[in-house]
Design a protein that fits this description.
The chain has a 7-stranded mixed sheet, covered by helices on one side. A 6-stranded mixed sheet has the order 1-2-3-4-5-6, with no helix packed on it. The chain contains 8 helices and 19 strands. The two termini are 34 Å apart. By secondary structure, it is α/β, with parallel strands linked by helices. One of its GO terms (molecular function) is RNA endonuclease activity. This is DNA ligase-associated DEXH box helicase. Keywords: Ligase. It comes from Rhodopirellula bahusiensis.
């Protein structure tokens, strides 16, 4: 085996590096820029080139960075390391390790299908596949992207016609930019929460097309918000920051919205099923396409997925990770929030929040 599981995360002793470590280490190979995968305080980071602006935005200034293009490889202690698109968010990558003919792949967080804000996941044949299972239950089956996009824009259009401001919640980096890319700017103006705007600017610097947005905090005095769309972080809901918008309709974009009662618990008007993780059928498809000898399942409903794969003739086991909990969800990147009244919620990682 090339990889072993440790208290600090997946470790490659041959190369002396950790993959997505749970604590500061000397050398970290990271799958993407969300803070539960790219921990602050490591000495050296190796990541996919498209994630550069996001990583530099939130890491300590004295950290050392090294970036590889997708498909480019580097040898570390005789282990060939390369990054391949994961489809989770901008710069997200599967990490492929090869040593003496053996190939092991860590998916990080990933999803199948197209996303205008990042490169699509691609299958990698391997001996060992480490897969997440955040939504690893049969109940989680995502609708086609076009249907969800149309529903969001129709909701916005209806709110505009009723003289309301629309507010949709998505995590600051990744989810929010995916939402922005799907919005029909012809319906009305688009505004952003401070944490969302900072992440969006990093996407723009990376060459990802984003619609024109106005940072909410840049508007002084009275302003007519009717007909507009505000993309905000979930922690803004119910705070004084929301009062400025007048009559509003709120929505949550999350994979958890597939479960009855999730919208009610969130106290929002609408719930849209938008996830940057694989659903049940996509997870099974990914395993089939990669066709590994062994599957390590982590992050979520790992026991359910491992049991099912074993019943289907696969060799699968739960990867016990001391560094992450079982109720993990789509992560918020740790970017500072310009609106101080909701700053704590905008910068906390909180994978247990939908």
């Amino acid at each position: 085996m090339i990889l072993e599981s440790t208290q600090a995360g997946l470790y490659c002793s041959l190369g002396g590096f950790y993959i997505d470590p749970s604590r500061p280490v000397e050398r970290a190979v990271v799958s993407h820029a969300h803070t539960d995968h790219a921990r602050w305080g490591c000495r050296h980071y190796l990541a996919a080139k498209p994630s550069e602006h996001l990583l530099r935005m939130r890491m300590n200034d004295d950290a050392e960075f090294e970036f590889l293009e997708y498909g480019e490889s580097i040898s570390i202690g005789g282990v060939k390391v390369s990054f391949h698109p994961a489809g989770h968010m901008l710069g997200s990558a599967q990490i492929r390790l090869e040593y003496r003919g053996r190939v092991e792949v860590v998916t990080g967080d990933y999803k199948l299908g197209e996303d205008p804000t990042c490169e699509s996941w691609e299958p990698i044949r391997c001996h060992l596949l480490v897969t997440e299972s955040t939504f690893g239950l049969p109940v989680y089956r995502w609708r086609p992207e076009s249907e969800t996009t149309s529903a969001i824009n129709e909701w916005w259009r209806q709110n505009r016609d009723e003289g309301k401001c629309s507010v949709i919640y998505g995590y600051a980096v990744g989810k929010s930019q995916r939402l922005l890319a799907s919005l029909d700017a012809g319906i009305g103006p688009i505004y952003t929460h401070g944490a969302v705007e900072k992440g969006t600017e990093a996407y723009r610097q990376s060459g990802v097309a984003m619609p024109s947005t106005t940072y909410v905090g840049s508007i002084e005095g009275k302003h007519d918000w009717q007909g507009g769309m505000v993309v905000a972080v979930p922690s803004a809901h119910g705070t004084p920051w929301m009062r400025r918008f007048g009559r509003i309709s709120t929505a949550m974009a999350s994979g958890w919205m597939a479960i009855r009662g999730a919208r009610r618990r969130r106290s929002v008007d609408r719930g849209f099923v938008v996830s940057d993780h694989v659903d049940w059928p996509s997870l099974l498809k990914a395993v089939e396409l990669c066709d590994p000898e062994t599957v390590w399942v982590t992050h979520g409903y790992s026991a359910v997925v491992a049991r099912y794969l074993n019943e289907q003739g696969r060799n699968a086991e739960v990867l016990e990770r001391a560094d992450r909990g079982e109720d993990e969800d789509e992560a918020i990147a740790g970017v500072p929030d310009a609106e101080s009244d909701v700053s704590a919620g905008a910068t906390d990682e909180g994978r247990s929040e939908p």
